[in-house]
């Protein structure tokens, strides 16, 4: 199917900064897949904080590679055109994909997706639920693995007690469910309005981060943490340190220059307590792992809100506000 001459609706920005007001609705040519890519008619996309951080210029000069830029990488869609080297998917397949961060492209009716980060979407997983998974669930999985949790029961001495901060967010909610599947005792932090929800996902004890105990990260039952999956921001090492077990490790998915220095010093001084910065490295087999768990009903995507593509700026603003409960979804077909 030759789509090159046709156009599609998309949402893009043409400079750094500007937030939701910097997004513009445009009509642009439908992209063409390279030989190892497919063209997707998008059903849903999910916004991650990294998307607006790129717009803010936090990853310049690498991302975005040029302007204008159609943001967002996590999508679900239907395959409508195959690159010349694609043999393992066919037109009509429903998939979950993570688009190449260099290309972006998720806030649009169509996008090209790389084969390496695309898996079939089973009927048990809806488009919005599927689109919620890639970056957030794989980050949660990689953070738990970095904490020493194995998902094949092969760990020698897996952590017994872990703390997950910002457990109500996109990453935190998947982290709680994955840690529960691994059989770990979970302490979690979130705001008061989400305590019951986070418990229902599998947290054993939950702290409201706005209380003194929550701010101090003190386990209500006095547990010391073998690992912390740190998904919040602005918590110094001095708050973590007294709550860690002798070999406790903080896996920090929101590292700052200060935490990088702390991490380096802990390594240099051969401290048993460690701070490990983590940057997502997307892997196709891990995308399959989380989609399979979702299919089996073991990993739920909690949806904060759904927005049509025509109101993508509302979704963007919601993510920038920092108070999402789960994933913020843009649905392509809901206003066509
Ligand atoms: N390193 C990587 O590769 C990587 C990958 C993915 C994400 N990240 C980063 O990880 C962070 C989390 O991502 P996300 O998608 O989960 O974000 P998110 O969905 O926007 O997180 C929002 C949630 O965090 C809660 N929260 C905020 N501050 C908190 C605190 N101090 N203690 C407890 N809960 C708090 C909020 O609760 P209230 O509404 O009650 O305040 C809200 O429910 C972001 O900074 C993101 O950029 C990094």
From TrEMBL:
SMART domains: PKS_ER (SM00829)
Pfam families per record: ADH_N, ADH_zinc_N_2
GO molecular function, one term: oxidoreductase activity
InterPro entries referenced in this protein's UniProt entry, alphabetically: ADH-like_N, Chloroplast_QOR, ER, GroES-like_sf, NAD(P)-bd_dom_sf
Enoyl reductase (ER) domain sequence ranges: 18-330
Domain of life assignment: Eukaryota
Protein name: Quinone-oxidoreductase homolog, chloroplastic
Species annotation: Ananas comosus
Phylogenetic placement of the source organism: Eukaryota, Viridiplantae, Streptophyta, Embryophyta, Tracheophyta
Gene name, Swiss-Prot/TrEMBL: LOC109711016
